[in-house]
TrEMBL record:
GO terms for molecular function: RNA binding; zinc ion binding. PPR repeats lie at residues 25-60, 96-126, 127-161, 162-196, 272-302, 376-410. This is DYW domain-containing protein. It comes from Eucalyptus grandis. Keywords: Repeat. PANTHER family: DYW DOMAIN-CONTAINING PROTEIN (PTHR47926:SF445), PENTATRICOPEPTIDE REPEAT-CONTAINING PROTEIN (PTHR47926). GO terms for biological process: RNA modification. Belongs to the PPR family. PCMP-H subfamily. Residues 591-683 form the DYW domain.
Amino acid sequence: MYGRCGALDDARKVFDELSERGIGDVVSWNSIVATYVQAGDCRNALRLFDRMTWDSGHVPDAVSLVNVLPACASLGASIQGKQVHAFALRRGLSEDVYVGNAVLDMYAKCGMLDEASKVFKQMEFKDLVSWNAMVTGYSQVGRFDEALSLFEKMEVEKIESNVVTWSAVIAGYAQRGHGHEALDVFRRMCLSGSEPNIVTLVSLLSGCASAGALHQGKETHCYAIKCVLNKLDNDPGDDLMVINALIDMYAKCGSAGVARTMFDLITPEHRNVVTWTVMIGGYAQQGEANGALKLFSEMVNQANFIKPNAFTISCGLMACARLAALRFGTQIHAYILRNQYDSVMVHVENCLIDMYSKSGDIDAGRVVFDHMQHRNTISWTSLMTGYGMHGRGDEALWVFNEMRKAGLVPDGVTFVVVLYACSHAGLVDQGIEYFDAMDRDYGVVPGVEHYACMVDLLGRAGRLGEAMKLIKRMPMQPTPIVWFSLLSASRLHGNVEFGEYAANKLLDIESENDGSYTLLSNIYANARRWKDVARVRSVMKSTGIRKRPGCSWVQGMKGTATFYVGDWTHPQSQQIHEVLTDLILRIKALGYVPQTSFALHDVDDEEKGDLLSEHSEKLALAYGILTTAPGAPIRITKNLRVCGDCHSAMTYISMIINHEIILRDSSRFHHFKKGSCSCKGYW
DNA sequence: TTAGGGTTAG
């Protein structure tokens, strides 16, 4: 009775008393073991089971084994589990379907699927639980194809699935990001007459979230209100789980507003750490990184304190990485160090590497990397990506070699990063070598993303003809990213012919991308083909496509300041413009000539020069100079690619100011120092 | 006495 009520101490007292008086029997041993398992204290459950087997004079029966096996499973204690299995075989208890199922499940949970499958095949009598344990076992170790084929076999053998089977299959699809398939299974489940429950809905919502299927997510929401939520015998924790899954679904499907409304409807004392995390993560992934950081601060400062877990911290760092919010990111790093996050540290540390490198301080990312106790493939590739973004190609390739020495096998993503690093550092020959080697030496077949990297690599280096030849040689259809790489390279090298070709291909495939139109009109402007510029602009106008406004932000003393082109809204605008005018006068004396083609207007050169001088990145720089301590770097982030004229101006300005200018644009980092830029023209 | 569930990184 005490055991069933969760009163572990009381149950133990009664058990010890019975033992002392010598009147304990197998049932009392079984009950106490079960009580420990239920309380989550599997270690003590195992200890008691051992005492029962060796010291008590009683012989474990089928119930004892069924009690102790889940404890082995949840500890991953496969050696003890195997001993229990051997005991069952010796005692002839393995015929019992309960015992068989528990053994099978123990092997599955310890990741020993081949052992589990052997047990499954040898079972003379299988029930639905046996099949379900096998299906979920395969699914959870990532052998989802085998899980599915078992699921299909169940149909063939006319074994009727129950809610557990259906939910497990839905969850399997959802975990792999195959939301549409999850939805299909859900429909089949409803047709089969099986009634979805909370677990089904939570799994399904996770699938909708990963598929971005808002409509089906809403349908699931209706179903939840009608049939599942707020039922009298529901555990309130289960209801919250569904609500959390709904918030996550709405946020990931682009309805952060709806998600926020649901979040606000839950009173703070009812929210748990996942409620906060899904909302923060939703903002961070939907490009509302400012909202994410605001909520993160609110979470750690609220009266009803809930400690952020590794997931929350990762989401916060992701938001910092997007915004290049170095100061906030550093504060989160300090928070981690103060608050002991021992478990699942790898994930958080990987986020730290990413945050530091995307915020302009790749050396700090390297320090995090060097201090890691355990590293996985993502740790190595994150560091490599960082070096690549900063144009430090040699160091990126060094990381690649060290990674191989550490025994890690490069995969498709690794090679994207390697090629990206070569491209951004102008290491053309090495890039070609790696591209040739990836299939030959590593067995990684180049995908469309690797071809895109190669087009980028050759294109940046001005080898446009070779890039075009490579596209023609591709064994698959080029995706927009391939043509976009060719188009960017054509813009960089002022090649109208290739630019037009790539732009036409791109507009055939996806006509909504403002970036393609802007690049093409830049190419025409550079060639002074104003009629073509006007034509592109009129197409944009008639199709309603608008160029995204350029926007830059800089971390000043009083927080982050944001600027748009020609922006006069900042309270210090007057001063900012004075600084800028003065700087431009001074660099003109050093040889700077405004590159008017970037102004995109068919007006006379003097006026174009004026428009250029108000580009957002220049305004951000002037503000940075006003608010940054002498000698400290100025960190600017831009949402689009830096304009060529601004790039040239910043190179000159870095000769006359006592700051390094660290600029992150949508493509990479530029470090301007003493008259040169780290990108060496490769942007 | 056995089976299923939500949030994170390249």
